[in-house]
Amino acid sequence: MLKTRLLCPFLFLAAAMLAPAAHAGAVTYSFGLTGVDSGSLAITETSGLISNITGTFDGLTISSILPTGGGSIGVPDDEFFTTPPYLDGSGVSFALTAADPDGYGFVNLSWNSVLSAYYAEQSVTSANTGGVAFGPDSLTLLSASAPEPGSVILVMIGLAAGLVMRSRMVQGSSSAR
């Protein structure tokens, strides 16, 4: 009985210590892209930086994210904001699995603060050699999902505490007979 009384507070203390880490990981946001361009994007970010992008752009599959900095189309910084506008003026650059009918296979999607809209700079090369800007576009948040390790831990601790309480009740009822 003494062990049970010591175990329950320890379990709840462990849950309280681990719960704040629940949002420390990556979050994936699903977007719909409409306007001059169209598509569905899944952007994964960690601590405000985009680490991955998947989905479709103008009917073509996105194959990979391009490196940040001056070597890629649009000079992307991959910064992500959890409220609109989700991207800044440098945006995110990515490659498509194939070129579109105009020969463009590389895209930089960014926010134009002067025109208050998203624009897609498209190019035949991934290099920052200047591309053609298409827009305006709208980026609509469809959903966001984050793994919740803290919640899983809390459920496990709750189940453990329930089992401890149940075993105490079973022990109490068998000794009363």
Task: Outline the structure in words.
It is built from two helices and eight strands, in the order αββββββββα. It is an alpha+beta fold. It has an eight-stranded antiparallel barrel. Helix 1 runs antiparallel to helix 2.
- Biggest sheet architecture: 8 strands, antiparallel, barrel
Strand portion: 35-45%
Distance between the termini: 18 Å
How many individual helices?
Answer: 2
Strand-pairing-aware structural class:
alpha+beta
Ranges where pLDDT stays below 50 over 5 or more residues in a row are 15-23
Query: What's the Cα radius of gyration?
Result: 25 Å
Mean pLDDT: 84
How many strands appear in the DSSP assignment?
8
* Strand ordering within the main sheet: 1-2-3-4-5-6-7-8
Which word captures the global form?
Answer: elongated
Helix and strand layout, with pairings?
Elements lengths: L1 H17 L8 E9 L3 E8 L2 E9 L2 E6 L26 E5 L9 E7 L4 E7 L8 E14 L3 H27 L2
Antiparallel strand pairs: 1-2, 1-8, 2-3, 3-4, 4-5, 5-6, 6-7, 7-8
Properties at a glance:
177 residues, alpha+beta, eight-stranded antiparallel barrel, 2 helices, 8 strands, 37% strand, elongated
Quick summary:
The protein is an alpha+beta fold.
